[in-house]
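Work Package 4 report. The design task specified in the project plan requires that, given a folded chain encoded as structure tokens, an amino acid be chosen for each position. We show below one input record used in the internal validation round.
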């Protein structure tokens, strides 16, 4: 005879997990909007809790601190949404397509295609973080952490090119990573798109040409 209690418990557990996940997404959405509007220093935890419709304690339980919440907001922005932030980078559709592509020129085109959206979504947050990092050591550490993670991720891409024999002769993986890290930086994007008024398409076309020229052999 089956136990009629167990299915109900499983249902309640699943529903509770779904509610917890939705609460986390609501917090991230509210925090992201406020951080973009008011900056890091100008956004208070009570304001986030109010907009998310939760108690402040709920935010601290989920994210640990204001800096922890800000980090989660940036990671969600880079990933393209809170639901994608928990997916391993290599399992995200755009990155999976890039890994499975065999033509190195096309790989670079696919990589560059991710950049305008990342800068559009995360740029306001990272600019706020960079501004706060000048006077807040915790924000400085967070900025350095994001930059280190970006460098590591771009190193994996350059390493993939090298493994497949696609990297320009004489160029080391470390040097190629430095080039990719520099050209794909928020600073370069903002200099051209924000400062000089380039469109996202013009920026992407320039970045694609620059990376092909710098990273791939001439015959490509």
């Amino acid at each position: 005879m089956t136990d009629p209690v167990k299915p109900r418990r499983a249902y309640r557990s699943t529903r509770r997990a779904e509610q917890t996940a939705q609460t986390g997404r609501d917090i991230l959405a509210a925090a992201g909007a406020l951080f973009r509007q008011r900056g890091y220093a100008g956004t208070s935890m009570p304001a986030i809790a109010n907009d998310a419709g939760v108690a402040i304690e709920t935010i601290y339980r989920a994210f640990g601190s204001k800096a922890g919440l800000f980090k989660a907001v940036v990671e969600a922005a880079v990933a393209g949404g809170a639901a994608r932030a928990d997916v391993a980078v290599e399992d995200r559709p755009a990155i999976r397509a890039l890994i499975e592509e065999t033509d190195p020129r096309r790989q670079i085109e696919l990589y560059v295609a991710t950049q305008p959206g990342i800068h559009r979504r995360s740029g306001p947050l990272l600019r706020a973080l960079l501004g706060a990092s000048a006077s807040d050591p915790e924000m400085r550490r967070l900025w350095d952490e994001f930059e280190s993670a970006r460098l590591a991720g771009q190193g994996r891409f350059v390493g993939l090119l090298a493994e497949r024999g696609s990297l320009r002769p004489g160029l080391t993986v470390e040097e190629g990573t430095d080039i990719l890290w520099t050209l794909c930086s928020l600073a370069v994007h903002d200099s051209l798109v924000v400062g000089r008024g380039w469109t996202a398409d013009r920026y992407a076309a320039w970045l694609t040409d620059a990376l092909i020229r710098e990273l791939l052999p001439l015959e490509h």
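The mean pLDDT is 89. Validation will be extended to a larger panel in the next phase.
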